[in-house]
Specification:
122 residues, mainly alpha, 63% helix
Length: 122
């Protein structure tokens, strides 16, 4: 299931430069980042009641970045939460709050009635 909707680069970009090297270092990326991506993709599928991973080949081009954006937001939160000491407390909390708000907004948009019909190529 790994990296069907989102890339490790998108996740690291969202987590920021202080992301713990245990999770984002090149040597560890294959295992830890893939797992985090899988969890995040699964959560988006659960929250939206649609299997976007299976449907990934049919997702319209204009919508794909929205899915990647929300998956990378969720994954970035997991990375930040892994080691909150990598940031000052205020910075970590602000990053988590912004990501949470972004996730809610995107999930709500995806869940709008009839919206998902426009996201998949028939």
């Amino acid at each position: 299931m790994s990296y069907n909707i989102c890339s490790s680069a998108a996740i690291i970009l969202k987590a920021g430069k202080n992301a713990d090297p245990v999770l984002v270092d090149e040597a560890n990326t294959a295992q830890s980042m893939a797992r985090i991506c899988d969890w995040s993709e699964a959560l988006v599928c659960t929250l939206t009641h649609k299997d976007w991973v299976t449907a990934s080949a049919s997702i319209v081009t204009a919508f794909y970045p929205v899915l990647e954006d929300v998956v990378s937001d969720i994954a970035a939160k997991k990375i930040i939460n892994y080691n909150l000491n990598a940031w000052t407390l205020g910075t970590a909390q602000t990053k988590l709050d912004v990501l949470t708000d972004d996730i809610r907004q995107k999930i709500d948009a995806i869940n709008n009635q009839g919206f998902d019909d426009k996201m998949i190529t028939p």
